[in-house]
Amino acid sequence: MANSTKPNKNNPMNNIDDWEDNLIERYPDPETPAKEKEEFRNYVDSERVDTVREFYRINHKYQTYDFVCKKEQEFLKFNRKEMSLWEAIDFLNTLVDDSDPDIDLDQLQHLLQTSEAIRADGHPDWFVLTGFLHDVGKVLCLFGEPQWAVVGDTFPVGCQFSDKIVYPDFFDANPDSTNPKYNTKYGIYEPNCGLDNVKMSWGHDEYLYQIMKDYLPEPALYIIRYHSFYSQHREGAYTHLMNDKDIEMFEWVKKFNPYDLYTKAPKKPNVAELKPYYEALVKKYLPDTLKF
Ligand SMILES: [Fe+2]
Ligand SMILES: [Fe+2]
What is the pLDDT of residues 20-30, one digit of tens each? Predict the structure, then answer.
């Protein structure tokens, strides 16, 4: 059965990936000619702009420190489903966009376009694998989670929200903004305490990191955990919370980002042809099943 994404109050976007149009507008590919950028702007219709804005309005309102603690307790028990990575990807692919099933790429196609571009540039195999699985945490949607608790830019909670985060004014409705415990530059954290000690807003990034943390090399884990942390990897807004290791590892997060954002091509990868390579790669690093 298709898990279609009929928009409703809690899920304003037609497609859970519509927020990425906003990302490409915010951070256009430096290699795309100006004319194509203009065409892209015309393609992103105003209705979609409004639904993405509404998505961020609720995301910024409800992603509080307490909310993240609650979600960690709920999901880091990993008692929902045990699946191989392939089963997880098949499961994720049941997320169907009703509005535009022909134009939009499915989740497997996005993963393969990302990983194939990494592979074509001759990067190490763990980096290719990271591209291939980086969004599998979006299965949260299929566990009934609202869009605003699965996708979108992530940011630290427990300290001041940076005005470098997209739609910063929407944080006015977040109770942490007026809580003196959480609304100072450092909040509950120490200067340069390291991101491992910092709670991030809840979504597919942190969830998948927690599933993968015993299996992949450290740079891969940083990519998975922080790939939506645009206010840092693009804007440098939270360097005051990072330690030397974070700074070093964020070079990988930055290296990954263009593969995530700019590889969406209309040409669909040939899944059958690519499968043997990815089967071997998955086997090399991951156990037969993973707990979700
Ligand atoms: Fe993602
Ligand atoms: Fe992605």
Answer: 989 999 999 99
The pair of three-digit structure tokens given for residue 109, joined into one six-digit string: 């196609």
Task: Report the separation in Å between the CA atom of 17 and the middle of ligand 1, taken as the mean of its atom positions.
Answer: 9
State the ligand closest to the CA atom of 138. 1
The type of residue at 157 is: V
Question: 83 — phi, psi (to 5°)?
Answer: -145, 150
pLDDT per residue as tens digits for the range 29-70 = 998 888 888 877 777 778 889 999 999 999 999 999 999 999
Contact 241/189 with Cβ under 8 angstroms? yes
Ligand index nearest the alpha carbon of residue 209: 1
53 φ, ψ (degrees, to nearest 5) = -60, -45
- Asked whether 16 and 92 are in contact (CB, 8 A), the reply is no
- Ligand 2 mean position to 215 CA, how many Å? 20
Ligand 1 mean position to 151 CA, how many Å? 7
Which amino acid belongs to residue 274?
Answer: L
